[in-house]
Amino acid sequence: MRFMVIIKATQDSEAGIMPSEELLTAMGAYNEELVKAGIMLAGDGLHPSSKGARVRFSGPKRDVVDGPFAETKELIAGFWIWQCKSMEEAVEWVKRCPNPMQGDSEIEIRRIFEAEDFGEAFTPELRKQEERIRAEAAKKSG
Length: 142
Prior knowledge:
The chain is of the alpha+beta class and 142 residues long. It has 4 helices and 6 strands. The strands form 2 sheets. The chain has a 4-stranded antiparallel β-sheet with strand order 2-5-1-6. Strands 3-4 form a two-stranded antiparallel sheet. Strand 3 and strand 4 form a beta hairpin. The protein is globular.
């Protein structure tokens, strides 16, 4: 099972306050542990929402809203993509994480959909298309 592990933003991360050397060192060690255990597939921090944008959809209409966005508790400061045997294993790994922020913080864990989750609607043709897309994306990012 793959999981997206989401580091929630705080007022400090949204203000662009960068982590200390101590925190960067601790997170680097934690990321090494994740990689050695075969858990971490990807991960990165994100710039504050003031440097972002949202696109709102309403039928055929598209509206672009530039950041910053008001609700800090709903924003993301960073993420990992993990491969774990279960949600319980992902939770155990998160509990070992250094606190990613200076003060209180929160990390959310969400399972990523896999092809079999879509049932019959995900036809053999759609599966082949998905495989082609993933292979092409892997070539371009590698």
